[in-house]
Amino acid sequence: MRLSRIVSAGLLAIGLAACSSAGRPDLSGMSFSEDPLVGKVVWYDLITEDSTESRRFYNGLFGWTFEETTGVEGNPYILARSGGVYVGGMVPVAARADGNPISRWLPYMSVEDVDAAIIRTDAWGGQVAAAARDVEVGRVAAIIDPQGAVIGLARSDIGDPDDKTTAAAPGRAIWTELLADDDVAAAAFYASVVGFETSRIERRGGEYTLLSNGGMHRAGILQNPTDWQPAWLTHFAVADPSAAAARAEQLGGRVLLPPTQDVREGTVAIVSDPSGAILALQKWPL
Fold first, then answer.
1. Each residue's pLDDT tens digit, 13-54
2. In 111-229, where do the E strands start and end?
3. Is 145 helix (H, G, I), strand (E, B) or coil?
4. Alpha-carbon torsion, ordered 77, 103, 87, 43, to 10 deg
5. Is this structure's pTM higher than 0.85?
6. 3-class secondary-structure state, position 208
7. Which fold, 173-283?
8. Where along the chain do its domains lie?
9. Looking at domain 3-156, does it have CATH number 3.10.180.10?
10. Which of 69, 250, 253, 259 qualifies as a FRET site for 279, CA 20 to 30 Å off?
């Protein structure tokens, strides 16, 4: 399945709020901003080649519950909940004929204007992975930055999930970070395309770039310390990253980087789920 079809399969499941059917998602535990929260990651899709195993894994790791629905064009789509809040969706896909893995977490950033962001993407050397299209209550697209990392763009007509709704809690996404081969170039790209203000801070192991808007830190960029392809890495809150990494392994995942004092004082582990999607387990509260 091409990335454009994958992206359009789910995309802003919060838009289902506009459905008039009795079986629409329960959004009573969520609230939305009046204006777009530019730069905020407002949704996460898990593109997975094994949705059954993924459901078992994330339920066992984070306690998520799931609701089956359909996305654009009637494709299967699975909503994931943590307590009263929708935290993401699953897009089931068939394995590629060439055997290359396709499973990944795909975050979506809020932008003022999706089409204008795509024009800037092209001007700065990026590519369109999925063309802009209208969905239930907004407009979405996905792009590939000049270093090869994929990110979704979204403009919601009903407002973005506000910071109260997405407040840090165990099992929720609490940070999104780009592993970049050239962090300086990546910062310039996303400042132009999304509208971020950038700043550099010192962290153990070197400098770190913060991406902010309206005084709020929304994401970060790290000079890639691995030989992995540049990618956006989603961090999920856990009480104990060592225990969570061990649990992930018991559930069929792999530990790619166990907690170590050399990496953020042992507060983070990086694992992959059974279908190969990579995620970070971040200690919270610190």
1. 433 333 323 345 677 778 899 889 999 999 999 999 999 999
2. 127-135, 138-144, 150-156, 173-180, 197-203, 206-213, 216-223
3. coil
4. -90
5. yes
6. strand
7. 2,3-Dihydroxybiphenyl 1,2-Dioxygenase; domain 1 (3.10.180)
8. 3-156, 173-283
9. yes
10. 69
